[in-house]
User: Fold these one by one.
Assistant:
Number 1:
Amino acid sequence: MKFETLCVHPNINEDEYGAITTPIYQSATFIHKDLNYSKYSYSRLSNPTRNHLEDLVMKLEQGKSCNAFSTGMAAITTVFKLFKSGDHFIASSDLYGGALRLFRTLEKDNYSFDFVDTSNLDLIKSKINKNTKAVYIETPSNPLMIVSDIEKISKICRENNLLLIVDNTFLTPYFQNPILLGADIVIHSGTKYLGGHNDTLAGFVVTNSNKLGEDILYYAKTIGGCLSPFDSFLIERGIKTLSLRMDKINSNAKIIAEFLKTLPCIKKVLYVGLEDNPGYEINKKQSRGSGGMISIVVESAEIAKRILTNVKIFKYAESLGGVDSLITYPMYQTHADLPIKEREEKGINECFLRISVGIENPIDLINDLKEAIYGDV
Ligand SMILES: *Cc1c(COP(=O)(O)O)cnc(C)c1O
């Protein structure tokens, strides 16, 4: 079955009433029909609605196992339970702020991290030591849109017996399949494009092996950050339109990125779908789209303020990946917990904004930005 069809028809086992959508099994516990076996026993371990969604996401990412979590952060936290004190990791220096915050807290437990520009393979190689266990990347990264070569990094990982963990939230399995490129573990914030409507939090971990899948399930049930049946239903419903939304978001983002490049008050437009982006070629090689995330550097804090306070269709709000277009001020929101020096070095300052393009009409979106910057035109 092709991707779009699978998104709409994940139903493998119809229920006894022939329901078209997956029923919400809102039950914490299940009757044991046999003395020593029950397919379901307790919803922290497994639940039919959640399992159905997990099976779908596993197939979309072409993995061997999938577990669904209450948030993306719960998913990432559970993955790091695979490791122990003394282990060393190499991670992209540009990452979702919450992942960076988690890694800082793990440093207190004697996990150690080297943060490097993972688009540079030599830098990755130079940091590998005898305690290194995994490489952790986002591509494109948040918010600088740096592209890392998944296939080449996976080769380095295999040669050195390291796991490659890829956060695929930005491109989704519709555009990019890290497991096919050699990744061992794929993470999603399902809150974003998979859910797609800014109404539900969720996270996923997909693995390329049954053994890793068993380990993740063990820690998932032990830590308990699982996705509820109702939220599983909402994410599965969101996924039905994933391909339509991603196509529209992709084409809108290209139009808006090109428009933003024409404005003199915007100094830089970071979008992996623009040919002048340093990651353009590699992204094109390893994915089927550029997604909907654009970062911009505006001329002054005054322009940033004007945009954030005057937009009417775009909303000044955290998060991304929904049908509605949002603008984020990373220095006050997603990356507020970064040490100031580090944030400044990366250029995440008062002139830096991140845009998540939605599915509205692109002309309305362009006019909204124009009016916010220049007043009624
Ligand atoms: C939002 C996000 C996360 C965290 O997900 P939550 O669902 O908010 O916990 C992780 N990675 C990326 C790339 C994100 O955008």
Number 2:
Amino acid sequence: MKRHNAAEVPVPVSYGGERDEKTGSKVDKMGGGAARRWRSGGCCSRLWLVLVVFATVTMLLRHRYDSGLGHGAAAVVRIEPVHRKVKPADRGGARPSFSDSGSAKPVTVDHKSATTDSSTGTESDGGGEPSSASSSLPAAAHPFSRALAAAGDKGDRCGGRYVYVQELPPRFNTDMVKNCVALFPWKDMCKFTANGGFGPPMSAGGGVFQETGWYNSDKYTVDIIFHERMRRYECLTGDPSLAAAVYVPFFAGLEVWRHLWGFNATARDAMALEVVDIITSRPEWRAMGGRDHFFTAGLITWDFRRLADGDAGWGSKLFSLPAIKNMTALVVEASPWHLNDAAIPFPTAFHPASDEAVFVWQDKVRRLERPWLFSFAGAARPGSAKSIRSELITQCRASSACSLMECRDGPSNKCGSAASYMRLFQSSTFCLQPQGDSYTRKSAFDAMLAGCIPVFFHPGTAYVQYTWHLPRNHADYSVYISEDDVRRNASIEERLRRISPAAVERMRETVISLIPAVVYAQPSSRLDTMKDAFDVAVDAIVDKVTRLRRDIVDGRGEEEKLEMYSWKYPLLREGQKVEDPHEWDSLFAFA
Ligand SMILES: *[C@@H]1O[C@H](CO)[C@@H](O)[C@H](O)[C@H]1NC(C)=O
Ligand SMILES: *[C@@H]1O[C@H](CO)[C@@H](O)[C@H](O)[C@H]1NC(C)=O
Ligand SMILES: *[C@@H]1O[C@H](CO)[C@@H](O)[C@H](O)[C@H]1NC(C)=O
């Protein structure tokens, strides 16, 4: 196992004043914000060690209580593109995109000119013969000229959407699934990694679900689900020069997950360093320094942002590695203060096989009777002074319009059963979604799937996270009541009763219309007329890379963004600047 050389990797060694190369802002502040998630209000760097221990305990509790698990991936980095490992044979026009041992045959699209000169790499080949649509671009001026030209090729249904899959040995992906018993120390995860990450099929649950398409899905299996979809993506290409984006099939989430507990920092980072070593030495990396590369890390971002260098720090360092900073990491909870991760929905129980299945479900939840005005499924956080959960529980108990499902450890835990919490959400108009130990909750997606209008108390729970998948105007599909208002004893019931029936109807209809975008459909039969969470994510990545490439071609260069404001960029309206005041500034301010 390779230990990275500290001199090679400019990441903060201490929780101190390391500067971020790009923004010049202090990394410790960002780290502090992140660490705050685990520290319940700790603020001082001096307390770091103590807090790290606390953080670890908190994480343990979170992972145990939610009966989900974190997974992890390790990360690491080599900084420079390394040439020594390049094997020309690795590239070639027509390599089927997936080399792992999967059963499905990858769909390979025919390319007009799939031959690239493997000795020169993408940097100089520019795609061989310029495609006819590229006449407006200087031929081969950029390694991605051909890919950009394909975007303008109306005759190519995949034009501008091709994805090239980087080749990795199966130990970086499918082997982890085969060896699922090693994923988590306290629970056998094999049942949840089965069925392409959907987990075991569920019966109709006494009418709560449909007969087919419902699974007992774990919330941290996005790595597998995404991979299963990607291997059947309709626009795979074996020709990197044609690709709109490069998918790296590294199961970063599962990797870190199996090393979160009881492993030292070296073990947690080992595979991350390896994967970076491999991908940065490939010719595809050089085209854009990895800015067109993406991968999944199906846990929350804090599992990959270890601050302390010692073994006491939580998680891996994956996301701080310079190479990874250039890539897009797909997580289920992103950092408000970093640009290299993007949040995609937690998996829910519904994995439809057809548009029809979605329509039938939407019809069902639209017509349901909802006896409860609002409901809450969850547990208090007695250890956290900042948590508003106990206030919500108190209010819910006191209201005849609220139904409470208290989650507790042990066999009597109703929250452990998808049928019981989905039944609750299906009989409620509004579903309360406070923060948990971190900002986000899988429950927000369960609620929307049930046609229940989510009530959020912190913008970090959804509004600044799932900006690809949810409408920008949060009032269209949700209610926002600030945590401060709850602490001031604002009545939830009264706030919700103030919303007119017509407005409720409109919001619910929007929620129902969002169902396809927040579920992961069956890989074998994707949806025809609607985009699921996977489609939305791939489109967004392709857009992001294409925009960046156009900026480079037009000489604008990459837009300089300040990491500390990463939460704010997607919220900006025309003409607004990121420094302009925002009502949520204080919520995302550094301590
Ligand atoms: C980390 O743990 C591994 C076993 O998981 C062990 O082989 C290695 O020596 C440890 N490294 C350090 C620096 O403690
Ligand atoms: C990250 O991208 C920048 C800009 O393309 C590039 O200069 C840098 O070398 C890349 N970093 C790595 C580790 O490849
Ligand atoms: C909060 O409001 C409820 C109902 O309005 C009231 O009964 C209760 O005493 C209030 N609690 C506090 C701490 O103000």
Number 3:
Amino acid sequence: MPRARETTLELDLVALEHNYNYIRTKIHTSTMFLAVVKAFGYGSDSVIIAKKLEKLGVDYLAVAYAHEGKVLREAGIKTPILVLHAQPCNYSMVIKYCLEPSLYSPRVLREFIKASKAQKQKSYPVHLKFNTGLNRLGFWENDIDSIAEELEGRDELKIKSIFSHLAASEDKSEEEFSKNQIRSFDKIAKEFTSKLRISPFMHILNTSGIFNYPEAQFQMVRSGIGLYGYGNEARYDDKLRPVATLKTIISQIHNIEPNESVGYNRAFSAEEYKKTATLPLGHADGIGRQYGNGKASVIVNGKEAPIIGNVCMDMIMIDITGIECKEGDEVVVFGKGHSAETFAAGANTISYELLSGISQRVKRIITGT
Ligand SMILES: *Cc1c(COP(=O)(O)O)cnc(C)c1O
């Protein structure tokens, strides 16, 4: 890779392939693999990521909203796409682009039946989501009778799968809670199958679920963060490789005298002589103000340089006192060699938020094709 000359997000498709293959080793060969590519592929590039995964033989893709699925279809993606949170106003788009909606309440079930009737659909594939404790989206166990009534004698829909989502799969101290969710999902599935006399496939595990509860993989697993190189736990982070590396350069270097300040609201104040560098990225690129004032560091020629003062919309200042560097030198914000998880943790957040927040202004560069 030639060194960066502007702010870029490098996407390493060899790392993606490695992560996919690694996660695959954690499940049976017969278990289907759904790759979550919502939010621009966790802030990377959903089309590039989806195309690579399609080539690798992924069984399913998932996005959050209908528009995200439309983008994939328009790019030529043929793999089935589960839409986790499509809004009823977009159901005609869902059908037009052969997307498979998650239906999670009596209201949206009725709405989707209406939409598929209007478009004269037969056996349109849908997935029913059940709530087992996350209390976010999902039918409740006692909705099963009304689902059965609603679907009685209809042929517009085909329920391909039923699924649920774990609330704390990465948290060992919540093992009992997670196991209870898995048990209640199992119970719901049995009741559902016997009432509706159909056997859709089942799935409940996300990335940390795959690592911690492989016995509950059922017929499919859904992985997002692991594919992008983070495992919510050091021992899995070690086995995975970051796909995205955010790089920038030093625009200008200043020598700051004691008692001078740096940036808006004079938030950084120099107690001694300091050397600072100004970088061409800011909160409009997805590095929010929470990373300012020493909460996160970037890497300059192999050395850690803390962000000082307030993060601006298009710029960040860092302390490079004692670091050998010059204007134009490359800076690694996070990624290879500088974990997004660590960067995020400094500001009390998680890799998911940092990655998915990298804005569309940042140029994407693909490596390892
Ligand atoms: C985002 C999401 C996932 C992926 O979770 P990871 O922790 O990133 O693997 C899986 N299932 C659902 C329902 C999701 O919303």
